Amino acid sequence: MKTKVGIVTCGGLCPGLNNVIRSLVNELYYRYGISRILGIQYGYEGLIPSYNHPVIELTAAMVNYIHLTGGTFLGSSRGDQDVEKMVDTLEIMNINILFCIGGDGTFRGAHEIHKEVQKRKLKICITGIPKTIDNDIDLIQKSFGFETAFSIANDIIRNAHNEASGAFNGIALVKLMGRDSGFIAANAALSIQEVNFVLVPEITFDLYGQRGFLRVLKKRLEERHHAVIVVAEGAGQEFFECADENKDVSGNIKYKDIGIYLKDKISEEFENKGFPYSIKYIDPSYIIRSAPANANDSKFCNLLAQNAVHAALSGKTDFVIGFWNNQFTLMPIEMVVAKRKKIDVEDELWWNVLEATGQPISMKNP
Predict the structure, then answer these.
(1) Rounded alpha-carbon distances, angstroms, from residue 98 to 34, 94, 327
(2) CATH fold of 4-144+293-324
(3) pLDDT truncated to tens, each residue of the chain (366 aa)?
(4) pTM of the shown model
């Protein structure tokens, strides 16, 4: 078969990236007999000649063991690149199918590539495979790496609980990933049932006052003498001045560090009141996202890759391989990137979290 395929991984690391690469190569080679498979290095930069990132000719033997390690075998990068130059490269390389493994920003880029391909009337299929550790891609039930992330967070929270309960009025404050959606924090808390407060971007809270977080935390310590707090990285951003909204290369606002902020505010409040306490702050974000996938995520990565290959080789393009109601789906890229998926605070997941933690429904003052 003359089909030539490119595979690219973009954005932050996520458990399962290597599993998807390996499964794509195996499915293409063993199921469809496609042997011309190119690995594009360091994200969309690899399609821009000036970066001089060499492409890798991928074989089944080469990817045989890459799923045993975390990270991405191909490397990754963030940020927009020149769409015309990227499509020039696809033309020069005679690539017929491009698999783009990434999240929101990656898919926006993939859709722009598709539009340029259409404009030039080229026969190049653009396929998206959803990768976001935050599980925040809209219209997709779950993304790979998410289960591994909250499973590793489970172990970290267990040890954090040991730290907290080992000291009088001990506090363990754990910051987990979740820029705009608190799914990792919520699911990690439910998985271990040792967390007393889950703070997520979807719900605002007050620090001070009768119903404020610090008052509720002090009450918890007075009653039980230890507390475990899990905060998603995007929570509490309203506490910071928004005048200097710097953005990263992906166009996302650079969020301030809510973990350090909360640690400082807790310390300041309790010291001012002469209230004895001990606090430990833990940020395991980069450890979690660079870990290899667990068994269930590995299986899911394989099924995503298989379905993506089948769809691409049947002539579909400009789609994301999705998953909804436990069925694999094909979603138009434009629909998927229209908005972020967030926790519905009226839904069962959040009520389960409230029951597991015992935290108030609201920590906002009237």
Answers:
(1) 14, 11, 23
(2) Rossmann fold (3.40.50)
(3) 589 999 999 999 999 999 999 999 999 999 999 999 999 999 999 999 999 999 999 999 999 999 999 999 999 999 999 999 999 999 999 999 999 999 999 999 999 999 999 999 999 999 999 999 999 999 999 999 999 999 999 999 999 999 999 999 999 999 999 999 999 999 999 999 999 999 999 999 999 999 999 999 999 999 999 999 999 999 999 999 764 567 766 667 788 999 999 999 999 999 999 999 999 999 999 999 999 999 999 999 999 999 999 999 999 999 999 999 999 999 999 999 999 999 999 999 999 999 999 999 999 999
(4) 0.94
Q: What are the φ and ψ backbone dihedral angles of 227, each rounded to 5 degrees?
A: -155, 140
CA–CA dist 263, 37 (Å, integer): 49
Outline which parts of the chain fall under CATH 3.40.50.460: 146-290+344-357
Determine how many CB atoms are found less than 10 A away from the CB of residue 39: 24
Delimiting residues of CATH 3.40.50.450 domain(s) in the chain: 4-144+293-324
Indicate if the alpha-carbon torsion angle 201, 296, 100, 74 is positive or negative.
positive
Question: Which CATH number is associated with domain 146-290+344-357?
Answer: 3.40.50.460
Q: Which residue numbers are catalytic?
A: 134
